[in-house]
Amino acid sequence: MKKLQTAIRYECLTSVKYIWTFYTIMLSSVAVVFITLKLCLGNSDNINMSALENSSIIYIGILGIMGFKEDFKMLIQNGFTRKYIFISTITMFMFMSATLALLDTFVGLAMPLMIPDYRTLFGLVYSYKNQYLINWFLLFLTYTFVSSVTYFLVVLFNKIGKIFFISFIIALGMFLGFILPLLFVYVIPENVVQNIFTFLSRIAGFTANGTINYLYPIASLIITSGIFGGLTYLILRRTELKT
User: Which pTM does this prediction carry?
Assistant: First the structure.
């Protein structure tokens, strides 16, 4: 248990500097763009900016991919089991997701002071205002889900190799981008398609009476993150690091 605590502490403390580096760069970029546009336009009335959380989604996805090799190599060489490595990595992702979600929630509070029409990511989806706790929690779950998916992909890549992984990604992309739309248009009955979209809207929290039930997207994100996390652990148990 002490080794597990050491691994978790190492992963979380290491991630802190990356979080502050990311926010320094992101907020500096936003400030430069805002000031430039204000100088060009003469005022901020026509400046429109929303959903800066998308940057955090991309960032934590990249970390999920890039953080595997070196950390796995270092921890495995220092006698940590794959179980401890998995738990510490997932804990790091959850720590980073919670921190990023908290900072993004504060950014969402501050941005309307500069840009009155600024909307958060989930504000654009659900059109809510002043629901800061649910905003933080949905962001936390979204970031955790993204990191779980990217962690699964990089572990899968290491396990099956570049050729098979690229073939898998191409096949998946062709199915989702080409075959599946054709199935929806020409093969699957219209009522079935309608039921599928209705089901997906229910998962997103949109109910038949026009209200929003946040339990549905919360449960969906938790379940899917758990599935990808479980698959990752099954692969990681038999993973050897490839150079």
Answer: 0.85
